[in-house]
Structure formats: C-alpha cells, structure tokens
Write a structure and sequence with these properties.
The protein is an alpha/beta fold. It has 12 helices and 16 strands. A 9-stranded mixed β-sheet has the order 11-10-9-8-12-6-13-16-15, with helices on both faces. A 5-stranded mixed β-sheet has the order 2-1-3-4-5.
Amino acid sequence: MRGAISIARRALGNAWPNPAVGCVIVRDGVAVGRGWTALGGRPHAETEALARAGAAARGATAYVTLEPCAHVGRTPPCADALIEAGIARVVVACRDPDPRVDGRGIEKLAAAGLAVETGLCADEAAEGLIGFLTRVRLGRPAVTLKLATTLDGRIATRSGESRWITGEAARRAGHMLRARHDAILVGAGTARQDDPSLTCRLPGLEERSPVRVVVEGGEAVPSTHSLVADAARIATWSMVAEPLAAARRAAYRGSGVEVEPVETDGAGDVDIAAALGVLARRGITSVLVEGGGRIAAALLRTGLVDRLVWYRSGLALGADGTPALGALGVDMLDAAPHFGKIASRPVGDDVEEIYRPASKPDG
C-alpha cells in the first residue's frame, strides 16, 4: 500500500478534477502492475495497473489508495475492470466520499466474490488525497499557504527589496510545491508589484505549471506583466468582484485571461471563501497560495488553510520590514489560528517546516 501511496504522488497537480490515486497489483509476492491517475484524471490508476499486469492480474491482489469507482463517467467503472480482470482481493486505503461511489465500489467488489479489506494506511493515503477529499466534503479545494520569510517573519526590507529572502534550494522546493498543486493563487497587489510568472521552472517539470489565479481588486494587472502576457500559453484566471466582471473582461480581451465573477464580502472585496468555491466548481482540488499578506491573513482568519509550508531563512529585518501576514484582528490568544508542526527539514541554509491546523490548547 505504501508503494501505491508513493506512486499516487506522481499524479498530484495533474489529475484534477479527479483524485491522484495509486494502485499496485501483487501476485505471489511480486508487484506485477503499477498505475497512477493519468493527466486530466483518466485513465484511472486501476486501469493503468491492470494494463501493465496483463494476464498476471488473475488471482492477484490490488492495493489501491481510494475506493474503486462504481459509476459510469467518461470511463467504465474501475470496480468492473478489477472484477473482469480476475482480481481475487482488493485492499483499499480510503473510502470514496463522492456520493456517486461512497461504498458502492466496495459493495460491488464484494458482491462479485472478491475479498475486500479497507483502512490500510488510511491516514497516509488521505494526506495525498486531501485536495479531492476537501473538495467533495467541503465544496472547496485544499489550501496550502506557502511563506518564505526571515527569522522574524518578514518578506521584504523597508524599501521593498525581497529577492531573495531564501536560498536557491528553498526556491527549488517551492517550485516542486507548484508542480504538485492544481492552482497557484496570489492577490492583485503581489501580481502588480512583483510581476511573478508563477510557473514551475524545475528542469523536466516545466509542463507541470499550475493554473494561475489572481484575486483582484479595483485595478487590472498590466498587460505587460507575465500573468497577462503569458495567459494564452499558461492558464490564468482572474477572480473579481461581480460588479467589476464586465469591465475586467474588456480589459483582458484577447489576452487569454479568464475572468470569474465572485461574490463580495462586507467591504465590497472578493469573498475569499466564495472564490475557493468557484475554483472547486471548475474542478480545482488543491491551491497553493503564495501571497500577499492580505490574502494570507484572510484565509487564516476564516480557517481556510489546510497546510502551511514555511521556508525560513537566517536573515532578520526588524519591525520596519514587510510582514508576511496582514492584520488578523486577534485580541486573545485563544482566538489566534493554531497550527501543529508535522514535518521539518533543512533546505540548503534555510529550514522548511510544514504545519496543519491543530486543536486549540487548553491553557
């Protein structure tokens, strides 16, 4: 199963709107077929593994990270494919909460006489499926907030210089994060000030660049900036308040930027939760947020950050540097967003730490 979980990671960022699933078929103690969800979500992992196993699949065991589908979509049900291939036993890590499946795949396999076991390495598998599971259960993508800061949480000097806070190794790790997410999101201020390309520039992974999403305010991103100039080549979506949508479509006409109108919050700005809902309806399962401080604070205030990845350098810039987060309006410690560290490692001269939401401390 851990082999299936490992190969499922190859599909991260490439499988949406479907989940990134891995499957390993074992016969007589030997792996005879491996598969993971293909580009765009099909073929599915089970189909790919069965194709590689061929006749050796008969009487074998299939280890799969997510319950095989039982409904007819653009491809036949994977449960049927496993049955027809003569698989004798199926071990499933996670049950599929999609209402079209939700136990039906397991029931179909068992009804056909296959031995079925569930729950093996479920927590490990769910980590790789977090985007899909969040989209199905909560109607939004999983959100990873990435921060690259100094020791004291600053992202730029008082004059605005920010390149580079962290070293080359940390930047490479950040590009790998981009390759493993469906979309990358920034605020309009970051888009206008930094003119980022928001692409994956690791050798061999250039085609894994995520959909670029800009949450916009009153001004359009200039046509000379990369996010607009390259939009015909790299998918770029503008999330704007509904009253501004028509004007923004006119501003971006012919550029390739797609404009998505979004409900507003009480201040007339884009409602960030509503924006995530729009992304989910378009099939996005995971979003990497790279700035700026206002967007990051809005997500933290509303409890919408599922993972926080922090790259911390050995620099210190002081109180007059630019903070990584905007105002959170926290008066009491109990009201502060609280995260627990799940991983830490050195990355060159910097440190990478990964956090997930934690229960509030008792005191």
